[in-house]
């Protein structure tokens, strides 16, 4: 851990020395280099954002298309199996037929032999 911190410190120290030297010897080149670095980083950032947003949007879009297909299939099944809503509402009025009941004659006069408890 101590060696790693020392290595990072040395790298930063060398970067500061190089930056100071470039600033003193050729400031126009330094400004051009900083602007170029910022532009390259901005381009990389926007390309990454564009790629990542399309990727997540594509996943959502696929899910939406799949759900739409299922919904269309369900709607077609309903329309094919059932009548249209207008026909379903208008049912013909049928005259109710009289119920034909018959009486079955049984042995009403004969009483059963039951034990009383």
Automatic annotation (TrEMBL):
<dbReference type="InterPro" id="IPR048110">
    <property type="entry name" value="SA1362/YqhP-like"/>
</dbReference>
<keyword id="KW-0812">Transmembrane</keyword>
<feature type="compositionally biased region" description="Basic residues">
    <location>
        <begin position="68"/>
        <end position="80"/>
    </location>
</feature>
<feature type="region of interest" description="Disordered">
    <location>
        <begin position="68"/>
        <end position="99"/>
    </location>
</feature>
<feature type="transmembrane region" description="Helical">
    <location>
        <begin position="7"/>
        <end position="24"/>
    </location>
</feature>
<feature type="transmembrane region" description="Helical">
    <location>
        <begin position="30"/>
        <end position="51"/>
    </location>
</feature>
<protein>
    <recommendedName>
        <fullName>YqhP</fullName>
    </recommendedName>
</protein>
<keyword id="KW-0472">Membrane</keyword>
<keyword id="KW-1133">Transmembrane helix</keyword>
């Amino acid at each position: 851990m101590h060696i790693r911190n020392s290595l990072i410190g040395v790298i930063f120290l060398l970067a500061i020395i190089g930056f100071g030297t470039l600033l003193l010897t050729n400031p126009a080149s330094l400004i051009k280099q900083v602007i170029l670095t910022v532009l390259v980083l901005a381009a990389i950032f926007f390309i990454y954002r564009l790629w990542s947003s399309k990727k997540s949007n594509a996943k959502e879009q696929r899910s939406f298309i799949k759900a739409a297909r299922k919904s269309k299939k369900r709607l077609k099944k309903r329309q094919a199996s059932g009548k249209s809503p207008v026909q379903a509402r208008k049912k013909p009025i049928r005259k109710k037929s009289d119920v034909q009941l018959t009486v079955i004659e049984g042995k009403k006069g004969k009483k059963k032999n039951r034990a009383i408890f």
